[in-house]
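Continuing the series of single-chain predictions for the mutant panel. This is the parent chain; the variants come on the following pages.
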Amino acid sequence: MTTDKFDIEKPLWDLSTFYGRWRHFAWVTDPRSCFATEKELLEAKKLYNDC
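Parent structure:
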C-alpha cells in the first residue's frame, strides 16, 4: 500500500463544486481546531518541515 505525500497547497476537497466549497468552509471554521497547545503546533510544524 502506498500513500501520497501530504501537500499543504492542495485543497482536501474539490473547490469547483458547491459541496466541496461547503466542506472546506465547514472544516476551516470548526471551532475545535482553535484549541491546540503551542507544543502541538510546534510538533505539527516540525512534522510538515521534515517531509
